[in-house]
Write a structure and sequence with these properties.
The protein is an alpha+beta fold and 476 residues long. The protein contains 16 helices and 16 strands. The strands form three sheets. An eight-stranded mixed β-sheet has the order 1-5-6-11-10-9-7-8, sandwiched between helices. A five-stranded mixed β-sheet has the order 13-12-14-15-16, with helices on both faces. Strand 15 and strand 16 form a beta hairpin. The radius of gyration is 29 Å and the shape is elongated. The protein binds adenosine monophosphate. The site of adenosine monophosphate has 19 residues, from strand 6, strand 10, strand 11 and helix 12.
């Protein structure tokens, strides 16, 4: 029996794969002007990278990490000798991108003393063993940024603005999302606040679920995030972090808001926004879709993590970032009718009228592709009639028929599939004629400024442009 994909995973096929590529392109276009460069870190790390970074009391670490074992590690575990695994044998698939990026930044000293911040962006699969549902997968895709070494509140505002620009660039209109903002304080003010929330939970223990009662000791702030509606209501009455911030955190938060206000970025202050990962300090934010995504309405979020470098064994270095979920961004794009990339149709289908002309047809296909056209051709030995049917399926606007008659008449027959007009053109003119049929002449002036028109064919100016290749991409 064939095997199906694992629960909570998706195959990205056709338009879905195109959309993922499109989203990475949009991310690059938006992030590059802010000075962000791409980074790729491994899909698995030593589990400790996540355990220490994300926090032992978080759901992600406690319940959702996929363990990875090498064959010798697996042998130890299956023999009941898991305790003998060394740290570098305890591996896990990455559940998020920040901890691995910070590990890489420490390992490669990406933020040396006195240097400008390292600004990095990534796109890739993340893995969490969650209960799958719409918008919640076990392998999902995130696009994220990390700004390492910037303490200024302007950096917080800039990262948030960049996120909103990214959302906008994907065609998700500002009115369909809301930006939630909070400050979670720092080491100076959060411990006292945690204690206050813990005391509140204990005082309301009989009204809260078992998980929330347990959180009173381990991670009281997570009770704000409980999925249980009743717990949510009870936690409405808990102390607010906004009343507990120390003067430095308060000042930082005010400054972030002032920058956002000055740029006209609307936000809702949510003193109960505590994000699910332990490493956040001060600014946290989340972008939610207002309608249509049900309970999985967060398309992304992030914040500041000024202690993460030290937790991960590095020098004190502040940092902040965000991650947005591809699958939920797509749902948001669909919900507000944003354009999604469509499958690309070929410009021309080259049909072979007789096998005796296969080599000429093969050469024509390559020639047209070299000129930049998208070309399809039969590779299954179909009849001419069935090649035309296939060209129709591909929605090719032009079919180029090549056979003994066409070659005898001087070249190749171009058939406009819209008007049904046909004409035989010389093989070496096929590219220029095809460009004409596709209405591409206007845009075909040589990009190098030599003033020549050259259809989709090679630039005919014959110049080396100051020793540089011709900018039009024609290989000159
Ligand atoms: P987080 O890393 O938990 O802050 O999540 C950032 C974003 O990643 C969320 O707002 C979602 O858009 C996306 N995300 C997180 N977990 C999942 C999941 N299991 N399935 C799909 N998307 C997810």
């Amino acid at each position: 029996m064939p095997t199906n994909k694992p629960k909570g995973t998706e195959d990205l096929i056709g338009n879905d794969a195109l959309t993922w590529a499109y989203m990475r392109d949009v991310a690059e276009q938006v992030f590059t002007p802010y000075g962000y460069a791409p980074i790729e870190v491994p899909m698995f790390e030593q589990a400790d990278v996540f355990v220490h970074g994300i926090g032992t009391s978080t759901d992600v670490v406690r319940k959702e990490m996929f363990t990875v074992l090498s064959p010798d590690g697996y042998a130890k575990v299956s023999q009941g000798r898991a305790a003998e695994l060394k740290a570098d044998q305890r591996l896990a698939l990455r559940p998020e991108g920040t901890a691995g990026t910070v590990r890489a930044a420490i390992e490669h000293n990406l933020v040396p003393q006195g240097a400008a911040p390292a600004k990095l962006w990534y796109a890739g699969s993340m893995f969490r063993a969650e209960r799958p549902q719409k918008g919640r997968l076990r392998e999902f895709h995130q696009i994220g940024v990390e700004c390492l070494g910037a303490s200024d509140p302007a950096a917080d505002a800039e990262v948030i603005i960049m996120f909103m620009r990214f959302v906008e660039a994907l065609g998700i209109d500002a009115a369909s999302v809301r930006l939630l903002l909070n400050s979670m304080g720092d080491d100076a003010c959060r411990p006292a606040y945690r204690d206050a929330v813990s005391a509140y939970i204990n005082a309301h223990a009989d009204e809260l679920c078992e998980e929330c009662r347990r959180r009173a000791d381990t991670n009281p702030l997570r009770a704000f995030d409980c999925k249980n509606e009743h717990c949510h209501e009870v936690m409405e009455g808990a102390p607010k972090i906004s009343d507990a911030l120390c003067p430095e955190c308060r000042e930082h938060y005010q400054a972030v808001k002032a920058y956002l206000d000055a740029q006209g970025i609307a936000y809702i202050e949510d003193p109960r926004l505590v994000r699910g990962l332990d490493y956040y300090t001060r600014t946290v934010f989340e972008v939610q879709v207002i309608d249509g995504l049900g309970s999985q309405n967060a398309i992304g979020g992030g914040g500041r993590y000024d202690k993460l470098f030290e937790t991960a064994g590095g020098k004190p270095t502040c940092g902040l970032g965000f991650a947005a979920g591809f699958e939920r961004l797509v749902l948001a794009m669909q919900a507000c009718g944003a354009p999604l990339p469509q499958a690309i149709c070929p410009d021309v289908y080259v049909a072979l009228a007789d096998p005796s002309c296969a080599s000429q047809a093969f050469a024509l296909v390559q020639q047209l592709r070299d000129c930049g056209f998208i070309v399809e051709a039969d590779r299954q030995g179909r009849s001419l009639k069935s090649q035309f049917k296939q060209a129709d399926k591909f929605q090719a606007p032009v079919v180029a028929v090549i056979g003994p008659d066409e070659l005898a008449a001087g070249g190749v027959k171009l058939r406009d599939m819209g008007t049904h007009d046909e004409r035989v053109v010389a093989l070496d003119q096929a590219a220029a004629e095809l460009a004409g049929l596709l209405g591409l002449e206007e845009s075909d002036e040589c990009g190098c400024g030599c003033g020549h028109e050259h259809g989709h064919g090679a630039c005919d100016c014959g110049h080396e442009h100051d020793g540089q290749p011709c900018e039009c991409g024609c290989d000159r």
